[in-house]
Design a protein that fits this description.
Length: about 325
Amino acid sequence: MSTTSLTERYVQEVVRRVPADQRDDMADELRTTIADTIEARNSADTDAGPRAEAGPRTEAGPRTDAVERAVLTEMGDPIRQAARYAGRPLALIGAEFYPAYVRLVTLLLSTVLPVVTVITVLLDIADDRGLGSAIGAGIGTVVVVGGQMIAWPTLVFALVERGRGRNGLKAAGTRPWTPDDLPEPRRQDTSSARARVSVIWHALLAGAIVWQHVTEPYRASGAGRTGEHMQILDPGLWSGWIWPVLAGLTGLVIVETVRIATRGWTVRTAGWYAAAQAAVTLPLAWLLHHQALLDQDFLTDFNRDWTAPNAFYDAVALIVLVTGAASTVRRFRSARG
């Protein structure tokens, strides 16, 4: 394993946990600190050795790697190092337990919670309670179960942290951090083009909603209404439901633009993306389920004698929900690296 690879993996693990505007300076400082420490150790080893034996070193590479590993081991877990650099106190849960706590909560929210939510939604659908009930059950599961998955580990770790001083406890089931715990190098972010496409798509979609309301582009061809101009979406939506959708689309454009400017996702921007996506996805799914999105006069003229089955609208609503949830999960995964 090369020195550059090991050091860069350590630096990546540290700086991705600090504010985006501090990452470049902090990465340079950390690389310099590590390189200077390694050089000082190597120089000390050279000066301490017998000069008579100071011939050509065939093991300079392996020795440098060993010194690098020793330096990184002494610097400690990247989560703890990031907290120290960012000046964030780890008060409720101390520095020794905090890395294990973060990894446990992340594991629960990213693996267990989605499984529980999907099972709850499928059970509601299997009981013929309707898509609306299933959506409500899914949202309730995310809020309640997700809250429990955060609250209980926090309480347990906090109690253990409080009792550690009295009982001399150490982090149970843990071992000292070593460079072997570093993940594999991360792939370079190549999603800027997709982000630009997303900005254009959401902007066009918001513009199309306003355009069809202002211009009424559809011309009826049915008996008695030939040539009449109609909107495609239900005009009644402008009294309420359309506004959170437009606000959500605007929010998605803003958040994706910020992502392009900062060249990456953070947990904060992913959270704002999730809020904006929910403002778009949830109203659309509800309107589709209740068949209230499209103008009924437009549907009557366009479909003539054909009527779409209820299952069609339910399926489209479910696709909208799954697509929105999947895109939100991808943003949070990108933020975590």
